[in-house]
Specification:
Layout lengths: L2 E6 L11 E8 L2 H14 L2 E5 L5 E3 L4 E8 L4 E2 L13 E6 L4 H10 L2 E2 L13 H5 L2 E2 L2 E2 L4 E8 L4 E6 L20 E12 L8 H14 L7 H14 L13 E4 L5 E3 H9 L8 E2 L9 E3 L2 H7 L7 E2 L2 E3 L6 E4 L5 H19 L8 E3 L2
Parallel strand pairs: 2-5, 3-5, 4-21
Antiparallel strand pairs: 1-2, 6-7, 7-13, 8-13, 9-10, 11-12, 11-13, 14-20, 15-17, 16-17, 18-19, 19-20
Helix pairs in contact: 4-5
Length: about 350
């Protein structure tokens, strides 16, 4: 294991802010990962696991501990050559350091449904179960079969089935009850060869319909068409990494869409010019009589607009939910803007917005 000191972390994140890591190591296999974890344990050092850096805000002072960059590679689909029929499923076993969007592209090209609405999301495979990554009507928890991870408490590798991961909206046991306990090394996803694409989200449905009318198509949309549509939508909102686009210098959605009671939704609707749009809060008894309200709508109604700026920190000019680094921003400036937005939404609606990216350091 090669250990480096005082390594700048901003280049390892999509937001591009923050100071250095006191120590930095990169793991290309599980042995190196264990060695890094044990090194930190033996010295009483804090450990930060870093993947694609797309969901991370590093403090300006940096991280006073060991940053472990996960670089395990490899994707296996053991049953891909078996000639599976449309009604059967295929498991993709992906190492944690694999680029997420490349995996999505591969599964779509191979005709396997389950990821197509998650196209264009930056980051690596290892981060997907931690955040229960989701977008446009799909979540990875819908197709995760198993997560292999190093259990730092037991000092052993474990394989956890989906039911053991504690998945809910943007949550899992990995970022709640067992935060910092596990280091993900591989994720197994069970997809459906020949399956129909997911078309639950209104924006995707409309875009597909417009495209099909323009081309006079009367067949069902393909997985590739849906994935390409999702990427176009993400690009229009500054949520697709595009070189040279300042709106892409972000950590994606900065706030989670809050889940509220039906009663609170009705109260908000009663004092608003128009009722807020809503989405399903998800399955489960805990979500009965609850709905999900877009955080972007709440932010706009609280008086913030696209392009709103505080120095070099700003709201994206394409999407109210993304905070961007216009060039030279500090982490402190990003967090001041985030607090200003949260305070305004709390004052107007009584809803506390929850930050989606992870904050590393102080």
């Amino acid at each position: 294991m090669l250990l480096r000191e005082n390594v700048p972390l901003a280049p390892y994140t999509t937001l591009g802010v923050g100071g250095p890591a006191r120590w930095f190591a990169e793991a290309t296999n599980e042995d190196e990962m264990v060695a890094a974890a044990e090194w930190a344990r033996n010295r009483g050092a804090k450990l930060l696991v870093l993947g694609g850096g797309s969901n991370l805000v590093v403090a300006d002072a940096g991280f006073d501990g060991l940053v472990l960059h996960v670089a395990l590679r490899g994707v296996a689909a053991p049953d891909s050559a078996l000639g599976l029929s449309d009604c059967e499923q295929r498991v993709y076993r992906a190492a944690a350091g694999e680029d997420w969007d490349s995996l999505v592209e591969r599964t779509v090209l191979e005709g396997c449904a389950g990821f197509e609405c998650l196209a264009g999301i930056p980051g690596t495979v290892g981060g997907t179960p931690v955040q229960n990554v989701g977008a446009y009507g799909q979540e990875v928890s819908d197709v995760i079969e198993c997560v292999r991870a190093y259990d730092r408490s037991a000092r052993a590798f474990v394989e956890l089935g989906a039911e053991e991961c504690g998945f809910s909206y943007r949550r899992s046991r990995f970022n709640t009850a067992d935060r910092d306990r596990f280091i993900v090394t591989r994720v197994d996803y069970r997809l459906t060869p020949g399956g129909a694409p997911t078309l639950r989200y209104a924006d995707v449905q409309r875009a597909i319909e417009v495209g099909r009318l323009a081309e006079r198509l009367d067949r069902p949309p393909t997985l590739a068409e849906v994935a390409a549509t999702v990427r176009r939508i993400r690009r229009s909102k500054g949520m697709l990494l595009v070189e040279g686009d300042p709106d892409c210098r972000s950590a994606g959605s900065f706030f989670k869409n809050p889940i509220v009671s039906e009663q609170l939704f009705q109260e908000i609707a009663a004092v608003s010019p128009t009722a807020p749009p809503t989405f399903s809060a998800g399955a489960g008894a805990e979500n009965e009589a609850r709905v999900k309200i877009p955080a972007a709508w709440l932010i706009e109604q609280a008086g913030f607009h696209k392009g709103y700026a505080l120095g070099a920190a700003a709201i994206s000019s394409k999407h109210t939910l993304a905070l961007v680094n216009r060039g030279g921003a500090t982490a402190a400036e990003i967090l001041v803007l985030a607090d200003k937005i949260r305070d305004a939404v709390q004052a107007r609606f009584g809803i506390g917005l929850e930050m989606e990216p992870v904050l590393a350091g102080k």
